[in-house]
Specification:
181 residues, 32% helix
Length: 181
């Protein structure tokens, strides 16, 4: 179901359109290719994805504004304790230091934008990365611009104030792990 959720997010971020001939009869193709064995489990997972989808349209409850700096200890436990799955990232232009916007997914919080400065060179595929705020970090939590909200369906921007205060974890894809590269 994680693959289904990630595919759903990727589809939304890449501008899904039902006008596309390739996806017009996708349900017919999938019905012929796969048979569903545990319908109740499948329906439960679809409900979870639906709940995740509702978050796109629900205001983020922890907004404090661009001026207020929040210490790690005062952050919601989900942000403190959980690893945030990266679904997209881009290096921000016109920044003096290496500054990145990461779009992250959290099952209970939805899609969020994380802006951070780092000395690390972030390249490759977004899905290979996860983020974890360090206990010494301080952040600002504010509403995204309309452009960012419309493009990435993010609920909030979490900007890490100090450089290198967010751990960027790179995981080698399982395919390459199996090859022992």
């Amino acid at each position: 179901i994680e693959k289904l959720k990630r595919s759903y997010i990727a589809t939304v971020l890449n501008g899904y359109s039902t006008e596309d001939i390739m996806v017009d009869k996708l349900d017919v193709l999938l019905n012929k290719a796969y048979s569903l064995k545990d319908v109740e489990k499948y329906n439960e997972q679809i409900k979870k994805i639906s709940s995740f989808n509702i978050l796109f349209y629900t205001p983020f409850p922890y907004i404090s504004g661009k001026k207020k700096i929040i210490p790690y200890i005062k952050l919601p436990k989900e942000i403190q304790e959980d690893y945030l799955e990266v679904v997209h990232f881009e290096k921000l232009k016109y920044a003096k230091a290496s500054k990145y916007l990461f779009i992250v997914s959290h099952y209970e919080l939805g899609l969020l934008g994380i802006i951070l400065k780092t000395d690390e060179n972030v390249i490759g595929i977004a899905e290979n990365y996860t983020l974890k705020l360090k206990p010494t970090s301080k952040v600002k939590i504010y509403n995204p611009s309309e452009g960012l909200r419309d493009t990435y369906l993010i609920r909030a921007i979490i900007e890490v104030v100090t450089i290198n205060e967010c751990e960027i974890i790179y995981s080698l894809p399982s395919f390459f792990k199996a090859l022992n590269i």
